[in-house]
Amino acid sequence: MLAVNHSDLTLRVGSLAVLCIYTAVILLLLCILLLRFVRLAKERRRQRVTETWRPLLAQCVVEMPDTLPTLKPRDHVDFLYLWNHCYESIRGDARTQLNELARRMGTDQFAKRLLRARLLRRRLLAIVTLGHLQERSIWNELAATLHADNAFLSLVAAKALLNIDAQAAIPLLIPVISHRKDWSPLKVVAMFEAVGADLAAETIAKAATQAPPEIAARLIRHLAATRSPQGLPPLRALLQEGSPSDDVLSACLFLFGQCSDPRDVPTVRAHLAHPTWYVRLQAASALGKMGVEEDEPRLIRLLDDDHWWVRYRAAEALSNLPWMTAEKMAELCGALSTIESHEHLLPFMAQTNVGKTLPVPTAASPPQRS
Predict the structure, then answer these.
(1) Mean pLDDT, range 102-124, rounded to an integer
(2) 151 exposed, middle or buried (CB, 10 Å; 0-12, 13-18, 19+)?
(3) Which of 28, 285, 286, 329 is the most buried (most CB within 10 A)?
């Protein structure tokens, strides 16, 4: 009797387990179908918004449409993505008309509500939109967002502040740029594209003068991307007023070489004998771009430097001098007294088809790190 009852119980438990498994599989399939249905519905709605509003946004570039269709609340997010894409694709007065259209559709109020959204991507969309709309009512909220833990969120807020009022945003941004280690210098440079290279260069240079050495050096090196000399005066003052770290000094010399302002030549010359090798390296490279004929002997002396890379950059700088010809390079190489000097100069002579006529020693190799 007990054996029969035990077998019956096992059968019931097994049947219940199979039923649960089949039920779970069916529920999983239903969930997959539901998710697919929701996704397709969203895609159709997004396509409908795009087909309706893209021609109107294009027309708005020329003139404001007389009538506008109703925009449902659930379609407003898709409209914002489309509107921002159009805004960033054009320049000039057409943007004013796009802003007028957005305000007529209540986009400014909708974007303000999105600032409190839980999803980060919606908050980012709101900040970008309100920055394009130059909505000053959220100025304090954006200023507080500059110190957010999320680096991307704070960068987007900084760009929105610049779009609203660049001159007023600069005093807020300088201390933030100088202390945020998680802000990429490339992102910082790109952030200032809309306000002009001169303002970008001056702001980043001032931030670098207040930043810790590791941040300052990175910012200064990326100043070259602005192609503006407005960043040079703060850095000149920095070098004159104190003794910056070797990293900052090296970055300044790099920038001086990129900008090639004759006023910085004495500063570059003064660091050709600096005790730190990578400072001498940057001084040599810079002098090759901005030096005059009297600087040639200075570079020749660096061909006997203790550090391999300094000798290499000095040879490269000599070859880059504007008055350096193939014949002069050959004459200079023949006058050198050390094997090391020849080894570094010959590769650059070979580029001008001079070195092939001279005895070439074993090629120099950079020192290997242990």
Answers:
(1) 90
(2) middle
(3) 286
